[in-house]
Each structure stands twice: as C-alpha cells, then as structure tokens.
Amino acid sequence: MMTFSKTNNRLTTPWLNLFRHNPEASLRLFCFPYAGGAASIFRNWADHLPADIEVCPVQLPGRGPRIREAPFLGVPRLITALCRELLPYLDKPFVFFGHSLGALISFELARKLSQDSQLEPLHLFVSGRLAPQLPDTMPPTYDLPEEEFVKELRRLNGTPAEVLDQPELLQLIAPTLRADFKLCETYEHLTRPPLKCSITALGGLYDEDVTREQLEPWREHTSAAFSLKMLPGDHFFLHSSESMLLQILTLELEAVLSGLNHRRVSQGPSAFSPREFGPALLSDAAR
After folding, report:
1. CA torsion through residues 260, 284, 275, 85, sign
2. How many domains does the chain have?
3. What percentage of the chain carries pLDDT values higher than 70?
4. What is the pTM of this model?
5. How far, in Å, CA of 240 to CA of 234, rounded?
C-alpha cells in the first residue's frame, strides 16, 4: 500500500527502500535484486552514480524488513502487484536495472507498463539473465531436497557460506530462495511487440549458466538501441566487479540524462507531463 508522509509529503511504500532520498533528481533508477536478494545490495549505489539520479531499490516480500511476508510464487501476480505499487513513483522519467531474477521482473514490468499505461522506462538494464524467449535447459532446483538444494546454492556462489553452514539461518531464508527460483524456473514467455526503450544486457565472463550467446537475443526486445557488455566474474559479477559495473551504468545514465535535457530544452515544460506519468494512471493499472 502507498502512503504519503505527513511531515515531508514524501511517498513511502514497503516495496521501495530509498537509502538516500533525492527529490531534486531528474531521473529515477529502479533496481530489482536477484533471487533471494534484498534492496540492501544496492545500498551504496547512489554514492557512485550521477547526482541527478535517485536510486530506488525494490524490496520484494519475503526478505529484509518484509521477511515475514509470503513471497510471490508466480511472475504474473508479482508484476501486477509491482505495477500497482510502483506507479505513483513513475511521476518523473525512470530507468530499470535488474540482475538475474531481477532482470526478468524488470523486463516484464516494463512490458506491462507499456501495454496497460503506454508508459516505458527510458532505458532497461538486464544483467545476468538469458534472453526470456530462450528455453531454460537447466533442471528445476526450487523443489530439490534440502541437501541437494544447499549444494546448488553453493555452486551458484551467491549465498554466504556462513549462512549455508547455519541450519537456523538457512531455514529462515530457504522459503524465499525456493519461491524466487520457482519464479525463474516456471516462467512462461509470451511474444509481444518489442519495447521502444533502449536495452543494455550485461553478463559475467565466467558465468557458466548465462553465456554471451544467451544474452545476445535480448536485442530482439527493443526497437531502439541495444548493447551487450561482459564483465569479469561469475554469475554474481555485480558484486565482484561492482566498480566496473557502476562505471558502465554511469556512462549509460549520463547519456540518458543528456537526451532528457535535450528533450526538455526543445519541448519545454510539456516534455514530460504529470498526466503522462502520474497517479492518474493508477486506476487503469490497478484493474
């Protein structure tokens, strides 16, 4: 549920964790975490990105402060909820970044916003996720017995060993991890027209599960520019190569800001109408 703070008229929602509020920003960057990840993985990003950007990490149910909430088990219901909850934050230009599961979520959210509200991000960053139209040839893991499930988590190298070695901690996070894996592994892609926004795909050079060849077909989902960049690291290169990743994002976002400023200069105040982006669209998106 969305609420406004009475003290500063600031929009608040459990779906977002703004570590640094930036009301003067021209652009919002919504960040979607990987399976089992929380908004906290983007905690320091605002320190390294252009000052004219407000970093908006998305907090899904079942983790962080929302650990007691049941995680979603299906992509369509999650996307409907995200559209409803985040739409009031789309009152100014925005871009999406998502890693792994987050890439899938951000892509499907962009498509739903485009279809239901004629609203799209100015740029979409999809990281560590094979193109959605490709078949996932990996065997399902969300319903593995506990011992095999933990073995798979160790292979992926995204969950700290100290967590996997402590049964009580593992028992706390396992339901969310299984639910998130189910989102990925039961996802069904539907063919729709390509997005109008540009797309940047990002991958790890040593990621055994998502190769360059599996990232390349993301280009089919945009009628605008597409680029593919490979960084050192495995599936979780966004941590091991975070500095390089943020440099790439900075360059891309500066280009988006430049285009945004050019549009404002050429079109004036009408370049981005509140009626185009604001809560007036909420009633349509919530149907």
Report:
1. negative
2. 1
3. 89
4. 0.88
5. 8
